[in-house]
Amino acid sequence: MTPFAIFGIENSGLNLAVNLVLLFLVVLWIALIYWTFADARRRIEDPMLVGCATAASLFPLVGTLVYMIVRPPEYLDDVRERELEMQAAEARLAQLGYHLCPHCDFEVEKDFLRCPNCMRKLKDPCRSCGKPLDPLWKVCPYCETEVESTAAAPRRARRRRVEDVAEPTQ
Ligand SMILES: [Zn+2]
Ligand SMILES: [Zn+2]
User: Fold this and answer.
1) Ligand 1 center from residue 87 Cα (angstroms)
2) pLDDT surpassing 50 at residue 26
3) Cβ distance 111 to 125 under 8 Å?
4) How does 122-149 read in b/e, with b if 16+ C-beta sit within 10 Å?
5) What is the sign of the dihedral through the CA atoms of 85, 86, 92 and 96?
6) Which ligand sits closest to the CA of 169?
7) Quick one: which ligand is closest to 128's CA?
8) pLDDT at site 169
9) Gap from CA of 71 to ligand 1 centroid (Å)
10) Which ligand does the CA of 139 lie closest to?
11) What backbone torsions phi and psi does residue 110 show, to the nearest 5 degrees?
12) Cα separation, 29 vs 6, whole angstroms
């Protein structure tokens, strides 16, 4: 059966040792395939790519080594957890009254009329009591003076930084 069988009975010890080494290598190979599959499933969302990684690990040792070099550095669970934490942090800041200028992301106070950094208008003062008015308000909540609609103030949505950078100065 093995190449060493030809040496006869006196080499049966060596024979056994070779068989054990071969068995060990096969077990190690199967374990590495399983490990690659399990690890890829924790790091890669696309089942196609998980399949590719597992297929690559069919090449003994080399496949698994290559997978370890090119695999994503983070577990999917960690990525999701970090995103959730960032959302929670943003919500906390908004609750604490932490506001950002919609034009330049500079930190501003809730009642600023103008952004101190980019000098753009943030709010109009009430023409009766002078308190800063949100552009969405139709009436001043402090003195009940009606707000004259100044060309239907556009709704300010928080834009992404990329657009902020690309936006031309007015
Ligand atoms: Zn600004
Ligand atoms: Zn007012």
Assistant:
1) 23
2) yes
3) no
4) bbbebeeeeebbebeeeebeeeeeebee
5) positive
6) 1
7) 2
8) 47
9) 41
10) 2
11) -60, -30
12) 28
Tokens of 21: 């080494």
- pLDDT > 70 in the chain, percent: 81
150 CA from centroid of ligand 2 (Å): 16
Distance 143 CA to ligand 2 centre (A): 4
Distance (Å) from CA 104 to ligand 1 centroid: 4
Counting ligands in written order, which one lies closest to the CA of residue 156? 1
